[in-house]
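Entry
Fold in token form

___
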Amino acid sequence: MNPARYRAVLAYVGTGFHGWQLQENAPRTVQGVLEDALASFAGAPVRARAAGRTDTGVHADGQVVDFELPRAREGAKVRDAVNRILPADVRLLEVAGAPAGFDARRDALWKEYLYRWSRTPVVSPRDAPFVCRISGAADAARMRRAAGALAGTRDFRVFSVRSRDRESTIRTLHFVQIEETGAEISALFRGDAFLRGMVRAMCGTLADVARGRLPEDRCARLLATSDRSLLASKAPAHGLTLVRVAYGEDVALHSSE
């Protein structure tokens, strides 16, 4: 039997997970839970790779993963069977055949992350796991003007978690879109790739600008100086969701395999 390659769209509530990636000392990760379910279905170990390694507490509506099964199965049957094994806080939304060599991370054209804040005095229990409370006086217009400095191809190292590896810290941020709907403010980030902690670091600074604690030129100064002493605290993880990952037509989902 020849192994069959798959691409899947995955959604999860990050609250109960120590991020996506398998970790030696982390009791529960999305990758670990998914790989266990896939292995139970396939009767053999299965390695799943994600488009983006979300941090502890970060959610996903449209994470994309790739994996191989020992033999070809119809995508919908794989989805339904694996979902019966998975816990309630993670679900495969789509499963379909992928071209040989497809890599969910390397082949992605861009990713979108959404951060949500609420200016209500009390956030409802239904929204609280996914929305961060912010002052009722927070000004979305101030946040929007500050975010204008972020788009483009830039060195974003000041917004990233320090790493010992030599990975380039140059990234292209296509846009940052600030929206205001009633009491809610949201920030949508689209980029070719993101550094670890980058979006939450930007959101923490943008939130303090909206509150009036920082000047509107703070993001521009951070990019110009890379001075970490100018950073605000990172925004809480629970307000952040990976919403979408885009690919070219050559790696489009097939209806079945």
About this structure: Residues 30 and 144 are 33 Å apart (CA to CA). Residues 252-257 have pLDDT under 50 and may be disordered.
